[in-house]
Design a protein that fits this description.
Elements (H helix, E strand, L loop, with lengths): L17 H11 L5 E3 H6 L7 H13 L3 E5 L6 E4 L3 H11 L3 H13 L2 H11 L4 E3 H11 L5 H17 L3 E4 L2 E4 L5 E3 L5 E3 L13 E7 L5 E6 L4 E6 L2 H23 L1
Antiparallel strand pairs: 1-3, 2-3, 4-6, 5-6, 7-8, 9-10, 10-11
Helix pairs in contact: 1-3, 4-5, 7-8
C-alpha cells in the first residue's frame, strides 16, 4: 500500500495530459526562476483557465519540476526546483534545443518514483502486462473509485511512461522495455545475455516487420539481441520513440563491441 501511494493520478485527465505538461514547462522556461500563473499565461500558455494551470502545476510539483514558493490565489508564486536535471532541461529550452530538452523531461520521469514503483510493484518479474491488469492494480491499491478513474488515470500514467521510453503499447498490451533477458545456452543453463554476445548478432538493431492493421494503423515489431517488443504507431511521437530506441540500442551495441 505504501508503494502505490507514491503514484499520483491527475485530478482531471482531460486537462492534465503529457503534452499539456510539456506546454507548461515550455512557458515556465520563458519566465524567471520564480513565477506566477498569470506570467505563464502572458508567455503564451494555451489556456487562460486558472484551474487548468493549477492542476498542471500540481502535477509538475509531484514530478519534482516546481515547488510552491509563497502567496495564495492570484498572488501564488511557484519556483523551479534547484536540481541539475531540471536546470539542464530549462537551459536546453532557452537554447532552443527542444529535442534535447524533451530528452531531459524523459529522464525526469525515468528517475522519478512513479516509474520505479510501477516497474517493481506492477511489472515485477513479468515485462508484459495489459491495461486491464494496470486498472486492477490501481483499483486494488486505491479502492473506492469509479472504473473511469482507474481507466483514464491509468492511461495517462502509461502515456507518460511511453514518452519516457520505458514502456511500449500494442493494443491492450503494455510492455516494459528492459534490456535484461534470460538466454538458455546449449547446455540448458539460464544465463543473462550481454549486448552483442550472441552468435552472429548484428550490431544494428532491426525493425523485424511493420504490419498494417484493419484500422489503418501500423504495428512495428522490433527485435534486437536483448529487446523484443511491438508498438502501435498512432502519432509522430510513436515514430520518434521507435527511432530513439533504435539509435540507443545501436549505440550501446557499438560501445559494447569496442570494449
Amino acid at each position: 500500500m505504501e508503494a502505490i501511494e507514491k503514484i499520483k493520478l491527475p485530478s482531471n485527465w482531460g486537462v492534465v495530459t503529457p503534452e499539456n505538461l510539456w506546454k507548461h514547462i515550455s512557458c515556465i522556461a520563458k519566465t524567471g526562476s520564480v513565477f506566477t500563473k498569470d506570467q505563464l499565461i502572458a508567455n503564451g500558455l494555451y489556456t487562460k483557465s486558472e484551474d487548468s494551470v493549477s492542476r498542471n502545476l500540481s502535477y509538475l510539483k509531484y514530478l519534482g519540476f516546481v515547488e510552491e514558493e509563497r502567496g495564495k490565489g492570484k498572488d501564488q508564486k511557484f519556483k523551479i526546483i534547484e536540481s541539475p536535471l531540471v536546470k539542464d532541461l530549462i537551459y536546453e529550452l532557452k537554447a532552443n534545443r527542444e529535442d534535447s530538452a524533451r530528452g531531459k523531461f524523459r529522464a525526469l520521469i525515468t528517475n522519478h518514483e512513479i516509474y520505479q514503483v510501477i516497474k517493481s510493484e506492477f511489472f515485477k518479474t513479468d515485462n508484459n502486462k495489459t491495461f486491464i491488469d494496470f486498472e486492477h492494480f490501481l483499483k486494488d491499491n486505491i479502492p473506492g473509485k469509479s472504473p473511469q478513474y482507474y481507466q483514464n488515470g491509468g492511461s495517462f500514467i502509461i502515456e507518460l511512461l511511453k514518452i519516457a521510453e520505458v514502456v511500449s503499447t500494442n493494443g491492450n498490451d503494455i510492455n516494459l522495455l528492459d534490456n535484461k533477458t534470460e538466454v538458455v545456452d546449449k547446455k540448458g543453463k539460464g544465463t543473462e545475455a550481454k549486448k552483442g554476445e550472441e552468435e552472429n548478432d548484428p550490431i544494428d538493431p532491426k525493425v523485424d516487420k511493420i504490419t498494417e492493421t484493419k484500422s489503418n494503423k501500423y504495428t512495428v515489431t522490433i527485435k534486437t539481441p536483448n529487446i523484443n517488443f511491438n508498438i502501435e504507431l498512432e502519432s509522430e511521437v510513436d515514430i520518434q520513440i521507435v527511432n530513439s530506441i533504435l539509435e540507443k540500442v545501436k549505440s550501446e551495441l557499438t560501445n559494447e563491441r569496442k570494449s
